[in-house]
Amino acid sequence: MVKLTEFLRSLVQPLLAIIVGLVVGAIAIVIVGGSITETYAEMWKGAFGNFYFLTNTLSRATPIILIGLGVALAFRAGFFNMGSEGQMVLGALSAALTAIYLPGPGWLKIIGALFAGIIAGGVWSAFAGWLDAKYRMNLLITTLLLNYIATYFAAYMVTYPFKDNTGSAAMSQTVMLEKEAWLPKLFDGYALHAGFLFAVIGAIILYLFLKHTVKGYEIRMLGGNPLFASYGGVKRGKLMIMSMFVSGGLAGLAGSVEVLGTQYRYLDDALTSPGYAWSGIMATLLAGSHPLGTSVAAILLAALQTGGMGMERNTEVPLEVSSIIQAVLILFVSAKLTLSFIKRKKAGAKDGSAL
Fold this sequence. Notes:
It is globular, with a radius of gyration of 21 Å. By secondary structure, it is mainly α. It has helices at residues 2-31, 36-48, 51-76, 84-101, 106-135, 139-159, 195-212, 214-224, 226-231, 236-263, 276-286, 291-314, 320-346. It is 74% helix and 0% strand. The protein is built from 13 helices and no strands.
């Protein structure tokens, strides 16, 4: 009963934010001359109207969930990992190249590609953690700047040395993966692939890890009260690098499953333009870094995006209304962080948690 109550509490913030966003969205719909009920009905149909749309929404939510879980772990430890986009991109590129060039059967290519993506994203994230632990370089700034290095490096790799020069030579992309290296679909004829199972299992494992393990307790203690954690013998540097590695590894896994389950190659800008990384960060902040709440918030954000496309197709209301709702969510998160900062400042906290 206590666990159920805790889980329901984790859903309150994202649901409240969604409600506020829908109210503001309704005002925007009235301004453009649309029908609120018709517009939201089409948005619902576009996200959950039938099994096809539902699987599309869950497929879009998969990388958002995985990225959100990684960010949630870092935030719980008190570290602002804002480099999920670069970690995802390097993970996707590493997975694609591994699946293309690793010899062996399909199952070996898939496993090797997934591990390559996790390691690439994890190492890139841990590097930022090492810079903080070794040289006290601000983690927020380094992770943001490393995004640019990662994305431009990946763009160079698929524009020159690993570019597909057969057929679609104008596109900056790798060659197509062999079908045996594709992640299996959960349902024939639908977009949802096995990566969604990784996201669900990852959310459960992360929740149990943070809740019921010693290391998980140390992470929560470090994020909640760093001074007390240091007195308790928690070594900040080692825990930071470990947390950042796992956080980046989950982002790398998000990129890997997109390549293996949806795109079947690495295509420049295909992962950055949908804004998966920033949606994952938003889901984490909406849910207060709770792993299960983050997963639900990620699905809600994915539903807004897929539902917005359906809304634009079937009504006169533009897609930007969906963007307005998401902008309200960002404002909600910003207000929450600002209030949290003011409370810590009034309490005289010198080194508070990330949230």
